[in-house]
Amino acid sequence: MRAWIAAAYLVLCPASALAQDYRLQSAAVTELQGMCNRDRGQLWGASLCGPLIIVDGQTRQAYATQRDGLGLFTLTANGGWVGTLPQGVPVANTTVDWGGVRWIMVVGPLPEDAEARRVLIAHEAWHRIQASINLPMGNVNAAHLETERGRYLMRLELRALSTALLSNGRSRQTALRDALAFRLARHAAFPDAASQEATLDRNEGLASYTGVKLGAGDDANLFAARTLEAHDRHEAFARAYAYASGPAYGLLLDDYQPDWRRDLGGHPPADLLVSRVRAQALSARNLQRRAERYGGPQIASEERARAEAQRQVIANFRARFTTGPRIELPLEQMQFEFDPDRVTPVDGLGNIYQALVLRDRWGEIRANEGALIAPDFSRLVASNPAPGGLSGPGWTLQLAPGYEMAADGAGVLRPELIPPPSR
Q1: What domain range is 56 assigned to?
Q2: Which residue of 77, 271, 355, 368 pairs with 339 in a disulfide if CB–CB is 3.0 to 4.6 A?
């Protein structure tokens, strides 16, 4: 299966059109160039600069730093190129190949805050070069981070990382050891945790580190600590935790091992810190004592209550996507964009994407109240279709020419090619 996956924040809600004076877009272009000039390729051995395109998530109006290869954009007075991005081209915070150009794509409207804007742009600029520096994109969902134990240990790790970032000397080292101890305990509890998290750490984690390192500058530690705090009660760690832990581990490594990026190899950044600070796995009793430093009892109580509520949510998902009326869309050449903050893994069933746009040979589906993708990415399921199978609660399907929906013996609707007229 050939697939283009935008592991990025997808904008499905109404958004303001890009301002006609292009003030923020012009500022973003200047800021990207400024970060590149200051970095001079030192961070990753390659320049982060490249063609930038800023697209309104609702109207598809775009502002680009250069002419597109198809001649669809026109030049503005301030030197930018504007036009409408054609349907079928993914719109997400990511990198995308279109019109003969490999773009840094950012979804507008852009943040008014210059620091947040720089962090966002540098993050996506890293995604454009990651394959060229032997850090190819990976796509997994860390399902163990939906469990009560997995979330408990992740929240402890994030809190300890925040303490480490805002501390110095021995206090920093102690908090960092605690963070790594919580991480080691989680990996010991879940057999696939280390490999799944490593993929996310080396993808969104490194991108987020790059964004904060270059975009926040002297305030990088404070920015990263605020990000950790914002993620403390996050509802979707399975995809999103690395946006918070990535900057923290990268910035701490900058202090302990400034050349760590050259020694990364196939490891996640946190692994390099284990030996540096002599972190080790702790007994259950000592782990509980360390947890008390970071509000462990309160976290445990909150996660216990969440787990009880989540059991009913998962049961509803299973009933919704395995029984009753539904459509099933085969996935063969898919392109899709989604919001990583709204992904729920369901053991044995797949992943529920609350906000998603997906295209394949049969057309395009848009969902903002949930759609299921099988674990092997072989099919997408949407529930309770209206007659005809082109819409349902929170989703719409637009079929490509030559396709129609047809029901099988069990009443499940699938897209099929319309047979040619008989002669």
Answers
A1: 6-133
A2: 355
